[in-house]
Design brief:
94 residues, single chain, 19% strand, Glutaredoxin, alpha+beta
Length: 94
């Protein structure tokens, strides 16, 4: 369960959405739920989550909750923040 908070229909928001969708499709396939929340349309949700900067991604499930701030262009950072591995590294010993 992922929630992406964005501010309006801006190039930065569009880039974050596209980057996240690409990462999810490649790494999670159909095993994710993505909710995109525009803080201009839903300021109460942003206030409840204490969103100060957008884009902000929150991984709700599985616990623990994690936050990633930015346009999500750094795939390695996003995977680390989501506690995921690149699919090409899965199954390898650390």
């Amino acid at each position: 369960m992922l929630k992406l908070y964005v501010t309006g229909d801006t190039p930065r928001a569009e880039r974050a959405i596209a980057n996240l969708r690409q990462i999810c499709e490649r790494e999670l396939h159909d095993q994710y739920e993505l909710v995109i929340i525009d803080v201009l349309e839903n300021p109460q949700l942003a206030e409840k989550e204490k969103i100060m900067v957008t884009p902000t991604l929150i991984r709700e499930l599985p616990p623990p909750r994690r936050r990633i701030i930015g346009d999500l262009t750094d795939t390695a950072r996003v995977l680390l923040g989501l506690n995921l591995q690149h699919s090409e590294h899965q199954g390898e010993a650390s």
